[in-house]
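Same chain as my last thread, 130 residues:
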Amino acid sequence: MTGEHRETDLSESDVLELDILALLQTAEANAAFDTYGPVVTTRTAPQFADLLRMINALAAGGDFESAIDAEVFAAVRSPVDISRLEKFGVFATSDPVLKLTAVQTLRTIHDAETAPASSEAQLPAPGDVR
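reply #2:
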């Protein structure tokens, strides 16, 4: 029927999937999606999107592996962080996504450790893992 159409409402998971697909801008981001995309859930999609943003930014510099190593180094604030990274498996893997996920986790821990104490704990917004 001419002039008539019905808009399709997208579900939350559809919107999250489209957001992730829009972030497949580099070969490295595509490789991460190929490997880890099948295990991404609605709950983890915001963190995965942040991870893809990080991958795209690091890949843009040209030397992706060196950029990842620099990112891991920059995330370390204390010897405790080195122990955490070791437990995450960062030093035993060549998987760039695992390394960057560990960086995200370490930053989330730092944010939680440095958050101001209050009567009501302020939780980070979903996907706020830098």
